[in-house]
């Protein structure tokens, strides 16, 4: 039928048919298809909330700098004078041990971070990656800085395994369920092990 391939393509990207039996140019049948841009599956990119994103880029309105509660399921592993280290449950991309690291100071652009602070921040990221690989047994760690999601600079650490869901492909951080942990207690075990390992690496 006319239009079926186009409909199928739009459905692939989250559009649904919301109004049918319309007549378009040349008196051919058409339909209206729409997508919910606020859907959680689309993530929190600035593409869908640009005015608010730019406002929050100012330290005065940054949720992190103003002590906003962490999102549900996130746990502080360590907070020191350089960084926050945070675990996530159930965890983006279903990867056991996924976490992120934020500098204590507010930076919107990575290139605005002074060289000496950048070295200190990246040294912390390296220390955390070393501990994470030891605790999880990951083959490798992906280090990803996403500049289009949250305004306060941060780096995600994604442990990679031989049997993870993304061989030869980018990680899809929107996939979170089922959790990679057998139970919430196992997640808390991971947090405890990371705290112990990081403490050993600072002594």
The largest sheet is: 5 strands, antiparallel
The CATH superfamily of the largest domain appears as HIT-like
In the CATH hierarchy, what is the class of the largest domain?
A: Alpha Beta
Mean pLDDT: 89
Number of domains: 2
Total strand count, please? Answer: 7
Structural class: alpha+beta
Give the H and E element order. HEEHEEEHEEH
Into which percent range does the helicity of residues fall? Answer: 25-40%
Helices, by number, come to: 4
Task: Write structural notes for this entry.
The chain contains four helices and seven strands, in the order αββαβββαββα. The chain is of the alpha+beta class and 203 residues long. A five-stranded antiparallel β-sheet has the order 3-4-5-7-6, covered by helices on one side. The radius of gyration is 21 Å and the shape is globular. It starts with a helix and ends with a helix.
Give a brief rundown of this model:
With 203 residues, the chain is α+β, with helices and mostly antiparallel strands.
Which labels suit this protein?
HIT family, subunit A, alpha+beta, 5-stranded antiparallel beta sheet, 203 residues, two-stranded antiparallel sheet, single chain, 2 domains, 28% helix
SSE topology:
Blueprint (H helix, E strand, L loop, with lengths): L3 H9 L3 E8 L5 E6 L15 H8 L16 E6 L3 E6 L10 E5 L11 H22 L3 E5 L10 E6 L23 H17 L3
Antiparallel strand pairs: 1-2, 3-4, 4-5, 5-7, 6-7
Helix pairs in contact: 3-4
């Amino acid at each position: 039928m006319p239009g079926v391939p186009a409909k199928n393509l739009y459905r692939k990207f989250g559009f649904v048919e919301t109004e049918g039996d319309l007549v378009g140019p040349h008196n051919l049948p058409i339909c209206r298809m729409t997508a919910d841009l606020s859907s959680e599956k689309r993530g929190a990119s600035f593409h869908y909330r640009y005015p608010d994103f730019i406002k929050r880029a100012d330290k005065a309105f940054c949720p992190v700098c103003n002590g906003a509660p962490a999102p549900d399921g996130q746990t502080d592993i360590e907070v020191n004078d350089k960084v926050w280290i945070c675990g996530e449950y159930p965890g983006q991309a279903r990867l056991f041990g996924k976490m992120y690291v934020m500098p204590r100071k507010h930076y919107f652009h990575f290139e605005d971070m002074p060289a000496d602070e950048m070295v200190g921040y990246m040294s912390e990221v390296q220390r955390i990656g070393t501990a994470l690989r030891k605790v999880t047994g990951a083959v490798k760690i992906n280090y990803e800085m996403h500049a289009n999601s949250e305004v306060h600079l941060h780096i995600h650490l994604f442990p990679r395994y031989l049997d993870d869901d993304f061989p030869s492909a980018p990680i899809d951080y929107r996939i979170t369920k089922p959790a990679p942990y057998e139970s919430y207690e196992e997640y808390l075990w991971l947090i405890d092990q990371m705290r112990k390992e990081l403490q050993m690496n600072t002594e």
